[in-house]
Give the backbone structure.
Amino acid sequence: MFDKIITPIVTPFHRDAQQSVNYEATGKLIDHLIDGGVNGIFIFGSNGEFHVIEEQEKYDLTKYVVEHIGGRVPVYVGTGACATREAVRMSQKMESLGADALSVIAPYYMKPSEDELYLHFKEIAESVKIPVILYNIPKLMGYNLSPAVVGRLAEIDNIKGIKDSSGDVENMQAYLDATKGKEMDLLVGSDSKISIAYEMGATGAIAGTSNVITEVLVELDKALRAGEKEKAAKLQADIDVLRAALKLGTVPSVLKRAVELAGIAEVGPARKPVVECSAATDEKIIEMLKYYHLA
């Protein structure tokens, strides 16, 4: 159901006192990505700074994104929250605004029991009719969403996928084993593991690096599907140049600056407390972009 390259877009902000949402830059970024061949636009993921965007801002931007895309590709919206009722409220609103599917991160800061996690996701999924993708990112959640609970959740009609950003190959395999025979897609969220995840049975990638190096990710997907192993290996290795640069600042400051310096869209800074990249970091980002002929 979910396949190929889906871009979890950065959320563009103005360089004003409020760091307000920049709709014009959002549209420009989306058009660039769709023209580049991505198969979906995902708003309010980790690189989209969902954790620092107010609820009404999310509704307003979702309405704009759905209207701007106009059915060209599916729109995925992140609606995860620590409180079940908040996640339900946002999920229902995003469905009413035209989202094609929802991505729901497991609650963070706390560590719910497996039964609590099951009931949390079940209530959210049953509150809407559109497909739901579970989102596992242990380094930010503080724990791993277990294969056992994922297997239970796969029994719920509209829970149709899981994005795994653990970077753990054994964990991805355990998800595949736990959901075997069920309509449950595995989407890889660790860009360094795309090739191996596809070999295992992943149907696609939600790849943050595709904000900048769209062609590399789209061509990697095509090469893997065509069985062009040598080409795929080169493209997979190419991603590492950008990934290394991302460590130069707090997520998603370097990614956003790379989008700007590549001339894709004026997406602005990450919201505070994350600060803008320094001039010295800009120079390193430009050197990185030259590798891809983007600067």
User: Anything to note?
Assistant: The longest strand covers residues 159-164. The two ends are 36 Å apart (CA to CA). The mean pLDDT is 97.
